[in-house]
Amino acid sequence: MEAPEKSNTLPVLVVGAGVAGLTAALDLARLGIPSHLIERDGFLGGQVMRLDKLYPSDHCAFCPVWTEGAACSSHPLVTVHPLTSLEELESADGRIAAVLAERTPAVDPDSCVFCGLCRQTCESKGVAGAITLRPPALTWDPSAPPVPVLDPGLCSRCGACETVCPTKAISPSRLDSPAKNVRLEVADVIFATGFTERNPSPVAEYGQPDHPDIFTALDFETWTGEAGPNSGAVKRRSNGATPRSIAFIQCAGARDRRFLPYCSSVCCMHGLKQARWIKRRLPEASVALFYTDLRAVGKGYEGYARAAAEEGVLLVRGRPGIVFSLPQEGSTPVLALRYEDTATAKTLTAEFDMVVLNGGLAACPLPGESRLEPDRAQTCGFCREPADVAQAVVQGARSAALVAARLSAGGKL
Amino acid sequence: MSRAPLVFICTCHGTLSGALDRKTLEKGIAERFPDARVEFVPSLCRSGDLDRVSAPAGLEGPSGVLVAACSPFSRGKAVLDLAGKRFPGVGPELVDLREGCAWVHSTDPEAASAKAVDLVSMGLAAMKVRKRSPRPRIEVEQSVLVVGAGPAGLAATGALARLGARVTLVDRLARPGGLLNQIGKLFPHNTSSEELLGPLLQEIAHPAVDFLPKTQITRIQGDPGRFEAHFIRDGQDVSLSAGALILACGALPVLPENRYRSGELSGVISQLELETRLKKLEAASAPPDFGKAVFIQCLAAREDDHPYCSTICCPTALKNAIRLKSLAADVEVTILHRGIMTPGKVLEELYRKAMAAGVRFAAYSPEAPPEVRGNGRLSSVAVHDALSGRSMEIPADLLVLSTPLKPRPDTSALAAGLNVRLDNIGFACGCEPMRPLAAPVQGVFLCGAVRWPVYAEHAVDQGRAAAVKAAGFLEAGRAGGADLTSLALPGSWPGAASVDPQSCSRCGQCIALCPYGACRRGDDGTARVSGARCRGCGLCASVCPSGAVRVPENNVALRAMLREIAPRMDR
Is B437 an interface residue toward A (CB < 8 Å)? Predict the structure, then answer.
């Protein structure tokens, strides 16, 4: 390869550090192209970090993604901006300027040593709950030690924690300081903003949103995850009992004109994965998955779906019409759902202890994308088209290829 | 003047003093490593604390530096970096005394202190014997060989040329384009295959690209940085070498064989044949010569003998149904399916578009497949629609059978030589999930239907993605050879394995087991390890019956650590 002109290459802005954004930034860096990788959250890896397992390998989700994140944050050509959002993009005369808003956390993650003295002091002052040590599952990063987090509403700003902190990592006054605006000139922009799951589910007929035994899929992943609050045990959220039956409802809020008209693509396999894991942990429990079309179309996915059926997951073709509580005296209400088994054309009612609503993942917006020339902005990952990990990383690399080709040849692909 | 190991113990701002007893630590370490110098420091992660430590008198420099602090997942890595700067050239090592010791045993300070002594001793023992193997730098030829000139291979070639690489593109056939040459219009955007191929062909008309048509690859051997490919071209054996490889050799469409009375009744054709007919009809703007068409999906797919969904057949059927409808709105099209597989946004739109165009759907179950009726000529298809619960007989003068793509039989031979694993169907596997287009062996990449059935637009995306990976590999090796660690996590290189030929029993177990093809038989029958292929996983060392394999990080240091605590392991 000939040496590309790198000395005067402006950095590329990568918006979002999920698997697609990480891949794009790292692939650019390997070609010698610098980038700014901005991330709304305080950790790298995006939504995948919330997953306990990945389909179809059933491997832990955390390690492979964390490794990419670590490679990214230690690469000299990648500047990582955590807790940062893209405010504005300006484009004039072929130059692109990005305005970033960088939030300063009340606890500086680089100097906190996680000793917990701040919380002890706060509690001794009688301010209950102002400082919580977030368990790893809720920070979505199972490797992180419990991080002190200040609740802006409960904190009295007394400053006692600041006095006791051995590294001066905590400062309640930062709760009230505005986000810092940073202006960067960038060559191109790669959007990898990902998706959000609506929690609680917007589908009204699937029960009260605050019912403790009705979960959204990502919620359920955390609740039952091995790094989650129950260390992998499957329990009802209402009474802590082991559930006798669990229903997974696919397309809850997707392929539905009221919410998201499209198919979120990843939910069939995600639901199958959760159903299989539940069945393995609770062989006695009845596990049913209600689907519209079982879209197991990727590499190894059909075999995964077949294995689910062989392991005793009941696959029911049909979209339940309603989920409701059956009042029972003396114990937690059982949930019931009414559905048509469209394979047999029969309408039935079944009782379940827990219900998981799977589906309806909405792409995140691409702020300022419309202001850019089409060849200066690439999109990858779920915000481009519903994608699972394998598809998102391909998209991320593709975006890097298009940007790198434009920068090194001054041409278009 | 002597050289002794230096141990820094971080008290984490005094927060660990409660659990770890300073005197116990000093005494315990001195008993086992009398020459080690132990320093207690309040906060190793704060820059400056290490600088304040003056070099101990009488030492010309430490023989090694062990930092006993917190887990590498909290501040440990930062501590190591600071220690590395303070003591350049020593290669400090880390022991976790906080999360893994003081914190988990906070209620039992005595046990915590005893464990801390063990942990530090193990660290010192490992440090003593660990030999940092030189990181292999391999020469990387600045060229890429792309196998297959379908949409994926063309896109990969074009992108690589633009990224500045020299590329050789080979294909069995005379004409580039692969399976796309048999297809008129492409889903989801109804572009013609010429519209997709045209720009790709322009991209490969580049001075850095050498296109070799009518070239059949016979085998590929060699190591990352210099692979050697052998072909047959014009009846002659030819070979060339390349630094990296991209396999884009595609897949084969399955033929309906005798299923659903194809070959027996006239009017029963494959989806691929419908493509050809539609292309002609559209060129002539002629209405179809049939009025009632039925499509059957999932032939030779999602069955026990073919347990996979081929991804592309549902969208292809929808696309062709819409094309028929737009040629003549009164053509009746019914798709008999087992679930319409259109994941995502654009494909789901295609499904809706087909419904809006008046295409009818009926779901059959594999236990009751559709029955084709006719005598010499197709007359109707009988099916039980699982959705409505009704059995129906659909009059038809054309039956279109949707078949999947299957792996090319020659892929397996190519893959075997490169340690590319095949899945249970026979498609090639990358390193799922984060590097699906990269083979386990460095410098080998996959894209397109060789990995899994994929539609043309995605094949192009994959080609470009594979190109940027290959370009990254070449770039790593551009200046004076590739440091393979730059492609992995920095600092994670455990050292390449080596074999002591004196102790090797020539059993060959390591050769059979190595996932990267790094262990090979030398001329004398003993095992040898290719430094360019080895990733330091240590499988060879674990299986070697005679202890001839040495992986510096894994077995030597680990044994030293275990020996350090062995006397106390019975407790």
Answer: yes
The pLDDT tens digits for B274-294 are: 999 999 999 999 899 899 999
Residue numbers of B between 342 and 401 with CB closer than 8 Å to A: 342-349, 352, 363, 365, 386-389
- Sign of the CA dihedral running A157, A162, A164, A170: positive
Cβ atoms within 10 A of the Cβ of B175, count? 11
Task: Report chain A's mean pLDDT, rounded to a whole number.
Answer: 88
Residue B552's pLDDT band, with cuts at 50, 70 and 90, is low
Backbone angles phi, psi at B266, to 5 degrees: -80, 150
The third-level CATH classification (topology) of the domain covering B498-560 is: Alpha-Beta Plaits (3.30.70)
Strands B226-233 and B215-223, by their bridges, are: antiparallel
Tokens of B227: 């692979």
**CATH 3.40.50 for domain B5-129:** yes
Domains B5-129 and B258-398 share a fold: no
β-pairing verdict for A346-352 and A334-341: antiparallel
Helices (H), A54-186: 62-73, 117-124, 136-139, 160-164
**Which pLDDT tens digit goes with each residue over A260-316?**
999 999 999 999 999 999 999 999 999 999 999 999 999 999 999 999 999 999 999
pLDDT number for residue B55: 59
Q: Does B451 touch chain A (CB under 8 A)?
A: yes
Q: Is A404 on the interface with B (CB under 8 A)?
A: yes
| Closest CA–CA distance from residue B94 to any residue of chain A (Å) | 17
User: Domain residues of chain B, as ranges?
Assistant: 5-129, 143-252+407-476, 258-398, 498-560
What is the average pLDDT across B387-404?
A: 94
Could you tell me which residues are beta bridge partners of residue B160? Answer: none
Contact A167 B308 (CB under 8 A): no
Domains of chain A (ranges plus CATH)?
12-103+179-194+364-409 (3.50.50.60), 117-176 (no CATH), 197-361 (3.50.50.60)
Residue in chain A nearest B447 by alpha carbon: A394
* Residue A141, pLDDT above cutoff 50: no
Chain-chain contact of A306 with B307 (C-beta, under 8 angstroms): yes
More confident residue, A150 or B130: A150
Distance CA(A191)–CA(A182), nearest Å, equals 18
Summarised one tens digit per residue, pLDDT across range B97-109 is 998 899 888 889 9
Mutate to test the interface with A, among B162, B306, B405 (most CBs of A within 10 A): B162
Among chain A residues, the shortest Cα distance to B446 is held by: A394
pLDDT tens digits for range B234-261: 999 999 999 999 999 999 999 998 899 9
B528 beta partners: B520
ipTM: 0.91
pLDDT of residue A136: 39
Q: Which residue of A has its CA nearest to B384?
A: A343
Query: For strand B405-407 and strand B377-385, is the pairing parallel, antiparallel, or unpaired?
Result: unpaired
Three-state secondary-structure class, residue A78: strand
Interchain CB contact of A231 with B (< 8 Å): no
User: CA A259 to CA A64: how far, in whole Å?
Assistant: 33
- Chain A residues close to B433, C-beta within 8 Å: 54, 57, 59, 64, 388-390, 393
User: Does B491 have pLDDT greater than 90?
Assistant: no
Contacts of A390 (CB under 8 A, 6+ apart): A298, A299, B432, B433, B436
Quote the crossing angle between the two packed helices A389-409 and B456-476, to the nearest 10°. Answer: 60
Q: What is the CATH number of domain B143-252+407-476?
A: 3.50.50.60
The residue type of B38 is V
- 3-state secondary structure labels for all residues of B296-324: ECCCCCCCCCCCCCCCCHHHHHHHHHHHH
